[in-house]
Amino acid sequence: MWEWSKSITDVPGLSVGVAQNEEAQTGCTVALFRDGAIAGVDVRGSAPGSSEIEAIKPVRVVDKIHGVLLTGGSAFGLSAAGGVLKYLEEQEIGYDVTVTKVPIVPTAVIFDLRVGSSKIRPDLEMGYEAAKNASTAHPAIGLHGVGIGASAGGISGENRSRGGFGTTSIKIDDKITVGVMTVANPLGNVFDNKTGKVIAGNLDRNKWILPKTGEPWIENTVLVLVATNAKLNKEEATKVAQMAQDGIARTIIPSHTMHDGDIVFAVSTGSEECNINVIGDAAAEAVA
To answer: Is 122 within 8 Å of 28 (Cβ atoms)?
Structure first.
C-alpha cells in the first residue's frame, strides 16, 4: 500500500540544508548522508553542469557518497561544493584515504543568471552555510535554496513563469520510504499530468519560441534527488535514477532537450528489502 507524505527528509539517514542570497535570487540546497549512501545517476539533458558524476558510476572505486548538492549559478555555482566538502571534512565525514577523509559530493547546477544578479553566485561560503544548516526538518518549497531563481516554460516566451524547489515522499507497506527533492527550471512547459492543467508555459506548440540553430540558449534544467531506505547496490541505484526520469517526461513538455541539463541522482540509505521495480515506479510517480 502507498501512502503519500511530505518530504525527502522522511527517509532515514539524510538531512537537508539550504542557503541563498535573497537580493541576487540564487541559492543552493544540499542533502547530507553522514553515514554514507549508495548512489547512482542518470543524465538525460544535453546541457548539464555537474561535478563528481563519474565517481559514482557502478565501475568506480567509490562505494558511497556523503552528499548531493543542487545549486544555482550555472557552472560558477560548482564552487559551492567546496564549502560542503569543507564542512564534512570538519565533521570527519568522507572517503577514508588514511591521511584524511575526502567527502564525495556530486553536484549539479541550474542556470539562473538572468534572475537577480548574474555577478553573485553560490560560492564556497554559501555551500558551507547550506551544509551547516542541514537538518531532518521538512525543507521549505517554492522559491527557496536552489529554487529561488528558477523559472519554467521558457519555450513559451512571454508565458514563462517562476519555477522552484519541491519535495515529497511515498511510504510503501509501512516500511519503505521513497523521497524526492527537485528543482524545476525547464525550457519546457509544466503541467499537472493528472488534471492536464498547465502550471507554467503553454502546451500549444504553435506558440512555442524555438532557438535558432546554433543559438546559445543553455539556461534550463530539472535536477532531482531520489532517496530511499530500500537496499540498493550501485547498479540498482542507477536503474532507479533512470526510471525516475519518466516523472520529468510526464509533467514537462518537451523535456530532456538540447537546452536542458536534466540530471537525476538516486541514493540508498538503508537496508530494507524491496523489488527495484517498485522503487523505480514510486520514484517516477513522486517526481511527477
So the answer is: yes
The backbone torsions φ and ψ at residue 132, rounded to the nearest 5 degrees and listed phi first, read -65, -30
How many domains, the chain? 1
Distance CA 202, CA 82 (A): 39
50-51 and 198-200: which strand pairing?
Answer: unpaired
User: Which domain range does residue 94 map to?
Assistant: 2-287
AA letter at 152: A
Whether residue 208 has pLDDT greater than 80: no
Under DSSP, is residue 217 helix (H, G, I), strand (E, B) or coil? coil
- 287 or 253: which leads in pLDDT: 287
What are 97's three cell numbers?
584515504
- How far, in Å, CA of 167 to CA of 64, rounded? 23
Q: What is the mean pLDDT of the chain?
A: 93
- Per residue in 150-171, pLDDT tens? 988 878 766 678 899 999 999 9
CA distances from 156 to 35, 202, 210, 217 (A): 44, 6, 9, 14
Answer yes or no: is pLDDT of 202 > 80. no
Residue 274: CATH number of its domain: 3.60.70.12
Give the cell for residue 110: 541550474
Task: Band the pLDDT of 211: cuts 50, 70, 90.
Answer: low
Q: Which helix (H) or strand (E) holds 43?
A: strand 26-43
| Residue-by-residue DSSP string for 105-156 | --EEE---TTSS-TT----HHHHHHHHHT-BSSPPPPBSSGGGTT-EE-GGG
Relative to beta strand 189-191, strand 198-200 is antiparallel
Q: What is the pLDDT of residues 229-250, one digit of tens each?
A: 999 999 999 999 999 999 999 9
